[in-house]
Each structure stands twice: as C-alpha cells, then as structure tokens.
C-alpha cells in the first residue's frame, strides 16, 4: 500500500491529539471544590458564573486552546495574594500544582464540558412516568415523527433538508438495518427515480432476521459488554451471552422480556449481570456488585452511576447510598458503603432508584430481589426505560440522540414530544424494537440529506440526520461482501478468526441448521483483532454506547499498511481480477461500495491505476483507493 498526501495529513492530525481530559472526573471536582462557592449556583461574584460552559466563556476568563493566555489560569497562579484566586482567608484552599495542570490541559483541549452539566441549583429532570403527546395537525397518514419535526423546523425557522434519492436511501437503509450495502443486483433492478416503495424496502430488510440479528449484535455486544475473549474469562470470571443474544435478536424478542431475562437471568443470559471478576485487588467501585449497579442503570435507565460509585455524583443527583442500594440487590453478602475507597461503616440496603413505582424487599433472597428489580425496570409506568431505549435507537439511525449523550438521560432533550411519542408508540407495539426502527426509517425525516456536524458552540438545534461513521464490523463486512472474500467457518480458519464452536453453534441453533453451508461469517462473530481495534471496536471491559468518530494514528497506519487490511485486499483483488474485465470491475466496485456509478473522472483515475491488464497489486491499489473514500467509510 502507498501513503497519499491526504493520509499523511490525517496521520499528522491524529498524532497531534493528546488524551482528552475527563471533565466529569477531573475538572468538575476541582471547580466544585475551589470555585462554586463564589461563582456557582445563585452566586456570580465579580460577574462570573461557571454554571455552564457558555457563561464561563462569556466572562472572557478562558481563552479556548490557550491556557497561558487565559485569565482563569493567571488568577489561579498569581504570586500576589491580593490577585490570587481563591482569595486568602476563604475556606477553599489554593489549588495545588496538579490541579492547575489539569485545568491547563482542559483549556488546551478546548475546555470541553459534559453535555447538560451545570453547577446551577436547578437541573432538568426527565419525567419518570409516560406522558401523552398531542400531535400537530397534518395530512392523514403522515408519519408522526414528520409532524413533530415539521413543527420544530417552523419554530426554529429552519429550512427542512432536501430528500435523498432512491440509491442513497437504499444505501443508508441497508447499512443501518442489516449492516451491509445493497447488492449490485438490487441496485441494477431499480426502476426510475421515485418509483420504489420505500416502506416495502424497509419491511424486506427487517424481515431478513439473520442479517438483522448479525448487524444489531454489534450494538448490543457493546452495551452488554459481550466479548468472546480477553479480560475476565480466565477461571470463569466472565461469561458470554452470545447464544442467548443472537436468538433473542433473530426472534425479535419483546424488549420487556429481553430485559427481564438479562436482569433475572437463566444460565445462557447471566453473563451481563455477572460482569467481570477482575484478578487481584481492585478499587471498590469495580467489584462485581458495583458493576451490576453501574451497568443496569446505564444500559436500561441512561443513568451514570459510575461517579456515584465513589462518592455522591458531581454530574447529577445520584448518591453513593443509591449506587450501593442498587448493588445490594445483586449482592449475596452484606455490602459496606465505601467512599473514595475508604469504608464508611454504613451498610447498604437493597433498594431501587424510583420507589414511587414500587420497592425491593431487601429480606428476600437474591434471585427474588432480581425478579422484583426486573419487574420495576419494565413497569409500564417506568417511562425512563422506554425513553432510554428509543433514544438509543434514534441515535443509531439518525447519528445523534434526542437526548445527548445517550447515557445522560438527565439532559434536556431537543424535543420532549418526539422522545415521548417514540416511547409511547414503542409500548403500544408491545415492546417491539423493530417497530421503532421501522417508524424512524419510513419517516421523511430519516430520508433527508444528512449533515456533517463539527464542534457545537451553542445549544444543539436539530437540522436533520447526522452523517455516521461505519463501525469496524460494517466496514469489514462491506468490503467482504464487495470482494466475496469471507472467512471459512471451520477448521483452522475458524480458530484463527476467533469464532469458537460455541458461537458458531449458537448461530446454527437459531436457524435450526445442522451444517453451516455457504453462509458468510460476519465480523461480529470474530474476536477483536488488531484491525478491528484500530477501527474502533472496543475491548468491552466497559459499556460502550457510542464509538469514536475521529481518525486515530493507529487506524491510519492500519488502513495504509496493516497486514490484516493488506491481506484482505490482496485476497479480494485476486478473486475480482480473475472474474472481471478492467472497465467492468470499476463499475461493479463503485456500484457495490457506494451504490452509484463512477463519474467520468473517477473512471479515468481508476483506469490509470489498473492499466490495460490489471495485476493483483494494481487491483489492490484500486480497491484501496475506493475503500479509503470518506463516502465509503461514512453513512451519508
């Protein structure tokens, strides 16, 4: 492979990015300790309030990207006691050098702020119970999403985005629903523009239960920390839920049943609540009981309980006692509250976060307590669970949640009615996840031109779908579907791809198969290798609800010269070169990869790469040039 000037630029950009400062755990505690007394809540001494990032920047005390030029740092490090902050004599001590360094790094990195976070005394609180939504007037049969979004555009005086054409729609839809681009045959058979039935196309893809399950397993593997090898599997300290999860997705198991089988599990589904048994001594906030508290609250309720696992949370209202109360539901032994790794002497009492819906009987055995918790989380009046999952699906389909980030459901949504509408219709559908996906996919809102969003300097305003980056699994599966090079599900190839017999059997059992036949093995069933890691697939030691959207140095190198990528392209080149003439190859690859024909200029460039009689190396270079296009790597 050869490095292009563009790739050199990307490498330089990626390598220049230092590790980001964790606002919630590094910056917020410093500001709360030293600054909030005078500049937070209802107080704004000297005209400075740090309640929000916007207020902080308006005060001109922070020069983003330039800590040495920021008045905040100047005042915190002033030698003259009369100038230094906090003022001498105040209860709050002066900052130590390590704290100053954190703030300097934070400002240098853009002074990023946790979405929805505020030091003000009043914070937005998502309603607990479901709320009925009155739809605006509109043409009968109009998708209800479009009615609410049209009202939003009118209110914000925004020109609605233009609709996308049929090929773009099918490309986006297929990648979103089954994780693969549409086939060349499907695209070749398209009637004239505007003649396809988009609702029927959506239904056909959702009806492909195998492809749907294989794609959405990536989403759920990330959320449920379901990986096949790695940390925690030694001595049975961690267990997969692969077989149970795959069957659940193939069957489109109702989501309330799905949750109950995870929280009050059977043998096949207990890996999620079990978490990871770390080897050796660990921090008190990493025990399996606390992992249970963190994972259940994050995945199903959109609550960040990690901060509250060490101390009362800095980012929302949850307390250490509440985090341990949830952990005690799972614990089979008495659980002592530990604050910042120091025992407090107080014992946890098994309790659920929203007692107004019902309570946990702490005297019951653990299995009974788990059943009670599962019932409460799936309670029809628990709008928190309903809103959390539909917001996650909207984020997957549209590129950004109605509430953002999706794990911070205490953040105010950009449209409360839309969030509640989706949640209500989800319950009315009897907790059918596919019904939510279908409703979104068949809306004009989804079928509109996407936008590329940069840094947000003010309140978020919805303007349409956001361009999404392919996952590692989508990227590899798309290349394999285009080249026809799939790993073999047997023998040494099976072992090399990390697909264990148990995983393969789970797939086969779900389809009633005794033999695998010619079905391709998708990337989701393979263990995380170096290429998938470089492309952003996590190790799943922590819950992941969104993957990185920026290019890293490791990824750029892996895509340019990595052995895994080079081997895949070589195998693909050999297979395609043997079957297809040069000009036909160009048209086929562009159509398969981008769902469109190449332009005249693209044909000329590709022809120059391939030559009159393409070699394997020239075909590799051509494939690489297409697969490196942002148009291929992003879902537009």
Q: Please give the radius of gyration in angstroms.
A: 26 Å
- Major sheet: arrangement of strands: 1-2
Mean pLDDT: 88
Task: Report on the biggest sheet.
Answer: 2 strands, antiparallel
Distance between the termini: 27 Å
**How much helicity do the residues have?**
40-55%
Q: Could you give the count of β-strands? A: 4
Shape: globular
Task: Write a structural description.
- By secondary structure, the protein is mainly alpha-helical.
- The longest helix has 17 residues, at 563-579.
- It has a two-stranded antiparallel sheet.
- The chain has helices at residues 5-15, 23-34, 36-39, 53-58, 71-76, 97-108, 144-156, 166-178, 184-188, 198-207, 209-224, 242-250, 255-263, 271-274, 288-301, 320-330, 366-377, 383-398, 416-428, 433-441, 472-483, 491-496, 501-511, 530-534, 553-561, 563-579, 582-594, 600-610, 616-627, 630-633; strands spanning 336-339, 342-347, 468-469, 634-635.
- Strand 1 and strand 2 form a beta hairpin.
Secondary-structure blueprint of this entry?
Elements: H1 5-15, H2 23-34, H3 36-39, H4 53-58, H5 71-76, H6 97-108, H7 144-156, H8 166-178, H9 184-188, H10 198-207, H11 209-224, H12 242-250, H13 255-263, H14 271-274, H15 288-301, H16 320-330, E1 336-339, E2 342-347, H17 366-377, H18 383-398, H19 416-428, H20 433-441, E3 468-469, H21 472-483, H22 491-496, H23 501-511, H24 530-534, H25 553-561, H26 563-579, H27 582-594, H28 600-610, H29 616-627, H30 630-633, E4 634-635
Antiparallel strand pairs: 1-2, 3-4
Helix pairs in contact: 1-25, 2-6, 7-19, 8-10, 11-12, 12-23, 13-17, 15-16, 18-19, 18-20, 25-26, 26-29, 27-28, 27-29
